[in-house]
Prior knowledge:
The protein is 64% helix and 5% strand. The protein contains eight helices and two strands. The protein has helices at residues 2-6, 14-24, 26-30, 39-54, 66-69, 71-80, 96-113, 126-156; strands at 59-62, 83-86.
Amino acid sequence: MYHDLKQHFWWSGMKRDVATFVSRCLVCQQVKIEHQRASGLLAEIFQQEIVRLHDTPSAIVSDRDPRFASRFWKGLQKAWGTRLKFSTAFHPQTDGQSEHTIQTLEDMLRSCALEKCRAPICWDQVGERVIKGPEMIEVTNAKVTVAKEKLKEARTR
């Protein structure tokens, strides 16, 4: 959320404010957002750090994706001397990477299906802020007043 807001807004202590908001937002807490690097960066890191320091892998586990089953990929792995291991079809538990990807997709779908966050910090369009901003403040103030009155009544009992 911070990176999305940072493209349009900035204020002192913004990162801390966003972290505080996210920690209190129900939808944000129900869905874990994954932080991943771009695959191009991972490919570079794999080549520079893993292959350079540890040589090519002896085996790679794949989830039967057509890209990994292609003649090119099989030929490349044969040239590298790497064995291709395919996980059992329709059993993602056999491959932790597949399971992780599926879990990430489920989280993303869950975040889209749940009610959108309606707090002002999530609004990005001027029209919505103009229409709902002042009304929301009035409603919130009224609710706070009612809550204070009920708290006062409870204390006087």
